[in-house]
């Protein structure tokens, strides 16, 4: 990319999609009986994790040595095999009487495989290096489906189609963000939240190898507006570092107990910035199904969550370099000021 800092505006795209087939896929074996259910940890009851993140993978057709029918069959056969050890993904989330989530296996269980086609070419989809809300048309939606609903929905929906954000180099831009938003008053307390992988924190007992349940815990640090604006970068970095180190086994168990007692139902966005990192997911390396790595792999739309900052691995030719794309959602009124402040700090 020519510049480190870009303001991106996405035009409306005409993406006609024709759904050819919607098929529930079950595992080759280990199929749960009807009306069975699986207990979920209280960590899955955090209101912040009850979200649906539409994700796409784009591939060059030159990597395909067979027709779409063969590609779909490969995906179908692979999904059946993978669902043997990961059979919970054939179920549906539902709430129990006290609001707790569980995985339920009813008569409509199965991961959904959607076969579709379109005359749109990859070149028609715009910049394939950053998320684009216009791609949401590529995602299969049920009739009358509530937006981003997760309860009573399939845990896996795989679709095979033939066929205002910013990015900048990674840096600590919390102070710049606060200045651009012009937050008042100066003694207002701000929060930064981010997820921490707590697997290594659990010692008694340890998690079994291969555990794929939720083991993320939310860390939080606070500071006043004046301290962020007038303080130095080292002080801000120290706050974040201390918050990360503060996620211990006791912290995790305290979080679980708090959720069990209070069952929080609402997210608070006032004065909060949420950071989420996708760079450790190996989404490019793990998505080669025989026709090469995707040229883009990641989320479609970040705008439903205000004040979110997402680190994404950069694909394409720069993938091996470890470069990252940092996407930040801002109110339109703050975008120009944010860009000015970044440029004044040496980002071109």
UniProtKB/TrEMBL annotation:
**PANTHER family attached here?**
F21B7.2, TRICHOTHECENE 3-O-ACETYLTRANSFERASE
Q: Which Gene3D superfamilies match?
A: Chloramphenicol acetyltransferase-like domain
Which GO MF terms are attached to this record? acyltransferase activity, transferring groups other than amino-acyl groups
Which intervals of the chain form a coiled coil? Answer: none
Per its record, how is this protein called by name? Answer: Rosmarinate synthase
State the family named in the UniProt similarity comment for this chain.
Answer: Belongs to the plant acyltransferase family.
State the species of origin. Sesamum angustifolium
């Amino acid at each position: 990319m020519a510049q480190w800092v870009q303001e991106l505006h996405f035009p409306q795209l005409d993406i006609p999609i024709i759904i050819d087939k919607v098929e529930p896929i079950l595992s080759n074996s280990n199929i749960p009986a009807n009306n069975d259910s699986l207990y979920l940890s209280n960590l899955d009851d955090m209101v912040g994790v009850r979200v649906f993140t539409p994700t796409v993978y784009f591939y060059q057709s030159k990597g395909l040595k067979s027709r779409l029918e063969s590609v779909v069959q490969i995906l179908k056969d692979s999904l059946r095999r993978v669902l043997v050890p990961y059979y919970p993904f054939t179920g549906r989330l539902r709430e129990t009487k006290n609001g707790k989530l569980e995985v339920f296996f009813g008569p409509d269980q199965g991961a959904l495989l959607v076969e579709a086609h379109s005359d749109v070419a990859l070149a028609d989809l715009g910049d394939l290096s950053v998320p684009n809300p216009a791609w949401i048309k590529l995602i299969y939606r049920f009739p009358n489906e509530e937006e981003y609903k997760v309860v009573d929905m399939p845990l896996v929906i795989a679709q095979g189609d033939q066929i205002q954000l910013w990015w900048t180099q990674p840096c600590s831009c919390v102070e710049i963000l606060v200045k651009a938003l012009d937050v008042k008053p100066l003694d207002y307390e701000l929060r930064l939240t981010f997820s921490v992988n707590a697997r290594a924190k659990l010692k008694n007992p340890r998690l079994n190898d291969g555990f794929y349940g939720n083991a993320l815990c939310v860390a939080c640090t606070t500071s006043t507006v004046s301290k962020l604006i007038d303080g130095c970068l080292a002080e801000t970095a120290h706050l974040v570092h201390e918050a990360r180190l503060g996620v211990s086994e006791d912290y995790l168990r305290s979080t679980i107990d708090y959720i069990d007692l209070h069952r929080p139902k609402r997210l608070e966005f006032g004065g909060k910035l949420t950071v989420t990192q996708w760079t450790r997911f190996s989404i490019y390396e793990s998505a080669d199904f025989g026709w090469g790595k995707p040229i883009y792999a990641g989320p479609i739309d970040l705008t439903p969550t205000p004040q979110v900052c997402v680190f994404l691995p950069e694909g394409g030719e720069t993938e091996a370099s470890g470069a990252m794309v940092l996407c930040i959602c801002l109110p339109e009124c703050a975008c120009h000021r944010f860009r000015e402040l970044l440029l004044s700090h040496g980002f071109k």
